[in-house]
Write a structure and sequence with these properties.
11% strand, disordered C terminus, alpha+beta, TrwC relaxase domain-containing protein, 3 domains, TrwC, 637 residues, five-stranded antiparallel sheet
């Protein structure tokens, strides 16, 4: 999982020095960064990225307070003090000596144009909640494995951003060049602002990168941060896939889907970690849900209808910011570990906590015995293309690539796969099941492959209402649920066609006997029934047996909520007279509740209304954001 924030103000480095490089707390004035990190039991910040060589830094080296101040506070060389002293000794005037230590355009020139300089971006990587719980309550070996894998997964995701995404631009974007050399300062955190376990890594990406100028000499310029923001989801899924796969393979674990919010994509959690333990570590969730209820009521009062999916995301971010606690004084690592364990034992019992690693291994062994490390590339491409098209209608390769990585997470359940399989699935989905939407204008240069948009022609299911759980109102199907229905419909048709075609092939000993409509449906029914990445596939199986085995595997690996029919069973849709009567009753009750609330509340135009005063204060906060806060793709820890 990955969230993003901006580092914009000139004093933002102070926030990161005092509140990020030192954990989620405030460092006392006068205490050195190194002493504070040692006291809290936190590892020192380390340098990452291929761009370090140009600055005289080494990967894995320790980040100092002065280096952060120069790079992220002034946009200058991390060794600017020494360089400036040498230039002054050679007779260079002070202004010129300072200018020669600046990387790229000086911040003062940007501010003189009434613009806000972007100094860097804070990319925060964190694993799933179940992995955090296992790390916090497991033994020393489990913690060591998870921490080392987390470091490698972060480095892998950053390397992918360098090689595939990072670009520099100049001349107002008219000039562009690939820049596979970022400068990153990484800081490890182990808890959230409530003091509960939350392993995560703050990666401060410098908004400066080196390229070759027109004369062949290296020059410093700005990173195309828009491209980085566009690929946040793809980078986050890459980190989660790498992290989950290596941890599961090393500790012999497996994953299961956990539905956090009805209608949204399930999170693949570690099998064997109880739901109550996950909720124990997620201390802010209940506060966010309470605040979200208040904001939703106000939204309905202002607009006369419930918010859409985009509106829900906006209200969720708003609720998260409103309930975000203040920073606290960090506690030593060993003290936190002891407190977490004591708190969990007091609430859930010592037997559960002591047996948690063994419980997870047993659950993982059961899933590994049922789910083979098999990926049907053809069906995966159909699933990826259908889901992305139904959710977005128009999409790019980054959306397909992110969905391919999610497909591997859901299908393999933590099993290892061949490197590059996500790219293979994405390429096939674009080649076979998508059509290009971008049209190159005459006389214009063709756009790069990652800037081309696509669409598709999958049938989109109609919207439906889903019967409520006890005590909750009915809800409309989400875009993701409609995407799953569209994908499963096409996949089932292809599976049926494969099995029938393979059976006919065996009976007649001729591929030509396969029905023409089956060959048209999936252009491989006359050849091998699946193109699978299966490390131990038995080649002696007949085509029909292999096709049936793949179908069985996908049914076994499919998240349980899909097999139970919660999103695809027509019995849950509010289309029958009985269900429509229930919907009308819920509507009448909601109207009555809304009128009662309006009678109790003050008018919206009342300047003393606490809701309006609260919203006015929040708007002022949004106009002047805290340097450590920013709108990201997820909740910042």
């Amino acid at each position: 999982m990955l969230s993003v924030a901006k580092i914009q103000r000139r004093n933002a480095w102070r926030y990161y020095i005092r509140g990020v490089a030192f954990g989620d707390g405030r460092r006392p004035v006068g205490q050195s960064l190194k002493d504070a990190q040692e006291l809290a039991g936190l590892p020192p910040g380390r340098w990452l990225g291929r761009g370090l060589r140009a600055l005289g830094l080494t990967e894995g080296g320790q980040v100092s307070e002065r280096q952060l101040e120069l790079l992220f506070g002034e946009g200058r060389h991390p060794d600017a003090d020494r360089i400036e002293r040498g230039l002054l000794a050679d007779g260079v005037d002070a202004a010129t000596a300072r200018r020669l230590t600046v990387l790229g355009q000086p911040i003062e020139e940007i501010e003189a144009r009434k613009q806000t300089p972007l100094l860097g971006m804070d990319f925060t990587f964190r694993p799933q909640a179940s992995l955090v719980v296992l790390w916090a309550l497991g033994d020393a070996t489990v913690r060591w494995v998870i921490e080392r894998v987390h470091e490698r997964a972060v480095a892998t995701a950053l390397r992918w951003l360098e090689e595939e995404v990072a670009e520099t631009r100049w001349a107002s974007g008219r000039g562009r060049a690939k820049t596979p050399a970022l400068v990153v300062a990484a800081f490890r955190h182990i808890d959230n602002r409530d003091g509960l376990p939350l392993l995560h890594e703050h990666c401060l990406i410098l908004n400066r990168v080196q390229r070759l100028g027109a004369d062949g000499d290296p020059v410093w310029g700005a990173v195309d941060t828009y491209r980085l923001y566009q690929n946040v989801v793809a980078a986050g899924t890459f980190y989660t896939l790498a992290m989950t796969t290596e941890v599961c393979e090393t500790l012999r674990l497996a994953t299961v889907p956990r539905e956090v919010t009805p209608g949204l994509r399930p999170v693949m959690e570690i099998a064997g970690v109880p739901e109550d333990l996950i909720n124990w570590s997620a201390s802010r969730r209940q506060r966010i849900e309470d605040a979200l209820g208040v904001l939703t009521d106000q939204y309905v009062k202002d607009h006369g209808h419930l918010p859409g999916e985009r509106g829900w995301h906006g209200l969720g971010w708003w609720a998260a910011q409103e309930t975000r606690p203040a920073k606290k004084k960090p506690k030593p690592h060993q003290q936190l570990l002891a407190w977490w364990r004591a708190s969990a034992i007091l609430r859930f019992g010592q037997q559960l906590i002591d047996s948690l690693p063994d419980r997870c291994r047993a659950a993982g062994a059961a899933i590994r015995a049922r789910v083979d490390p098999t990926v049907d590339v053809a069906l995966a491409a159909v699933d990826v293309a259908a889901v992305v098209f139904t959710v977005r209608e128009k999409f790019s390769r980054r959306h397909i690539l992110a969905e391919a990585r999610r497909h591997l997470l859901e299908t393999l359940r933590g099993r290892e796969f061949t490197r590059g399989l996500d790219d293979c699935i994405a390429h096939r989905a674009l080649l076979r099941y998508s059509r290009r939407h971008t049209v190159t204008k005459p006389g214009r240069q063709a756009p790069a492959a990652d800037r081309v948009t696509y669409t598709a022609d999958f049938p989109v299911p109609h919207r439906w209402w889903i019967a409520p759980a006890e005590g909750t109102p009915p809800r409309e199907s989400s875009r993701y649920e409609r995407a799953r229905v569209a994908s499963l419909a096409v996949q089932n048709a292809i599976r049926d066609a494969r099995i029938r075609a393979a059976t006919a092939t065996e009976a007649t000993a001729s591929a030509s006997s396969a029905p023409a409509d089956h060959r048209a449906l999936e252009g491989e029914t006359a050849s091998a029934p699946h193109a699978a990445d299966h490390l131990g596939r038995d080649a002696a199986l007949t085509p029909a047996q292999r096709a049936a085995a793949v179908q069985t595997h996908h049914q076994a690996a499919m998240p349980e909520e899909y097999l139970e029919g919660r999103t695809t069973d027509p019995a849950t849709w509010l289309r029958t007279p009985k269900n429509l009567d229930r919907l009308a009753a819920f509507t009448r009750a909601a109207d009555t509740r809304r009128r009662a609330m309006e009678d109790r509340k003050a008018p919206a135009t009342d300047p003393a209304s606490p809701v309006d005063q609260h919203r006015q204060e929040h708007e002022q906060q949004r106009q002047q954001p805290d340097p450590g806060q920013g709108q990201g793709q997820g909740l910042r820890p």
